[in-house]
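Work Package 3 (structural annotation) set out to generate three-dimensional models for the target panel prioritized at the project kickoff. During this period the team completed the workflow that converts sequence records into discrete structure tokens, so that structures can be stored uniformly alongside our sequence database. As a representative example, we reproduce one entry of 256 residues exactly as it appears in the project archive.
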Amino acid sequence: MSADDSAPPVSSGFFTEIQLAFSFLTILPVIDQRPASEETVAASFAWFPIVGFLIGLALAGEDWILAHFFAQVIRSVLIIISLTIVTGGVHLDGLADTADALGAGRERERALDILRDSRVGTFGASAIFFDLTLKILALSTLAGHRRYAALIVAPMIARWAMLLVARGLPYLRASGSGSTLLSGKVSGVRTAAVAIFTIVVMLMLGAMGPVALATAVALAIVFAMRSFYRRWLGGVTGDLIGACGELVEIAVLLAM
């Protein structure tokens, strides 16, 4: 038997890509334990907004249930706690590391060293505090249909922003899950399909004025952060991508 014959089968296809996207963005276990090819891992990046939509749908359902027992402010706190738990706080960690790297000044190598460090400094802790506070306060002001729309749209647009901010920029680490995730170009067909899906969801949710404003604000943030990342470090890391997602999530809730 050759070495190739003894190797485990490689998983690929649409469902594998979706499962990988869930594994990157949530703490939910991946059902298919077979190894995936680098092309499949890279392709899974395109489905991030779909995962965001499903997260938002679950949050909206949770909020509907909690509305029978708790006031709006308490529900808002519980929803943000649920969002943090289901994502494993990974994007919050990225925001914290990015804030610490910014706080260290403009020296590129020093900033990259801080981004590799798992410890959270003063700037990072402050960023997490203001992130969670702004999300809770913004969500607390929303009620009725607009509240449900915001809960669905915010995670979806935030994960769409993560796709857009990294598109075409070099990945600054030679190893790690992010290097594999961004190892190839995301298919234009997949990107177009996700964009169409996102637009259809927005149209179905109604509240088009606030949703359109939130989308415009998100795109402006993505454009600004792409330009900043390119000038500051010359590319992106997983932490920088996560930080963009967090800021867009806050901005969408505020805009709604």
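Confidence is low (pLDDT under 50) at residues 1-10.
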